[in-house]
Design brief:
Elements: H1 2-56, E1 83-95, H2 98-102, E2 105-106, E3 109-110, H3 120-125, E4 128-134, H4 151-160, E5 164-166, H5 176-189, E6 193-195, H6 201-207, E7 211-215, E8 218-226, H7 258-270, E9 275-281, H8 292-303, E10 308-312, E11 320-323, E12 328-331, E13 336-338, E14 348-359, E15 365-378, H9 380-383, E16 388-391, H10 392-400, H11 409-426
Parallel strand pairs: 1-4, 1-13, 4-5, 5-6, 8-9, 9-10, 10-12
Antiparallel strand pairs: 1-14, 2-3, 7-8, 11-12, 14-15, 15-16
Helix pairs in contact: 10-11
Amino acid sequence: MAYEQMEFNTDNRKAWHRREAQRRQIRRRRLSFLLIVLISLLVLTVVLLRGCRQADAPPTTLPPTTLPPVTTLPAPTEPLEPETVITLIAGGDINITDKVVASGQNALGYDYTNNFLDIAGLFSNAHGAIVNLEGNLAGAPYGSGTASAPQQLVDALKAAGVDFVQTANSYAVTNGISGLRGTMEGIRRAGLRPVGTFATQEEYEASQGFTLCNIGGIRVALVAFTKGMNGLGLPTGNEHCVNLLYKDYASTYQKIDTDGIRLVLQAVEAQQPDITIALLHWGSEFNSIVSNRQETIATLMLEEGVDAIIGTHSHYVQQIVYDRENSSVIAYSLGDLYGDAEKTGTNYSILLELEITKDNLTGQTRITGCDYVPVYTLTPERDGESMRVVRILEQLSMYENNHISKVGEKAYQNMKSALEKIRSKTGLYN
């Protein structure tokens, strides 16, 4: 029994030893595998660390002689339009009289908006609009005795689309230098620009006697001169507050101030504007004849670089000379835009339209179109209508088509007659 037990134990030990040998072999294999894994991880870590150090290191640059050439491209720009085209429109005299002042009076004061409402679209649709104010903004009393108008008159012109007001005319200093300054201040307060007068000698010297502005991308120079100021002279120290056409401007208008005119126009030319327009208060009142001195002044102006001459003062519509080939216009007189309209021939006028084209490639600028719009001042006495400025062609059409807002028979006939006279006087047909 004991032997059998011993034999059993011996067999057991042998089996145990075999199992232990197998376990040791398995542990060695596991250790070898772990060692291989650890070595692999170590190698991978070293590789990664080297890659990071290389990434952080400054890049290797080529020698300057091996760098490729660099091409610089111009910055992109907007395509240049081949032409710039603008339209300028000019109206004639606005006369300050009792009747004109009263035409805008109401229970609350003054309002002239409706007086220019029918032509407002023409002014506002143009790139620049000009009128001639024969009067002052010198405060009350208003009317014929002082030629002073309420501020609301120029406010209405601004609302209608006017941009520039010619102030070099017969009434520039009717109320003295203080009246001139008040007029210029009132015009500027309305958002308009006076042309041809200067509040002080210093202002004249700073402007050199003209107004330069950019209108729709075209540099336009505006100059304005008057033949005189109803016999009044300029006081010492203010000799250049008004641009004048004559040396004897306070008497006979015989001696053209050629040097004075050239001085201003040469200053204009030095600024190299694209176009120069002269606003001239000249000629004789209530007279359709163009004088030899006017012709001389016109020739002088054109020779000194003026492209268009726009005249006022006669209160009548006069001839328009459009030289398309040489790109020049002379409109001797536009007539009264707004006044009493009591004297025959002063109840109608024209709005002159100039088309100006600049070739953006060559820089050449020309007057490429000249036309006009016939207008009429309706009055209660002559036409049986409220006092206001209207377009003749549109009013005739409304009457003939029985429009609800048509004028009466008397006004219709008066405007038909006025249209024929305008066409015959200007030499241009509309």
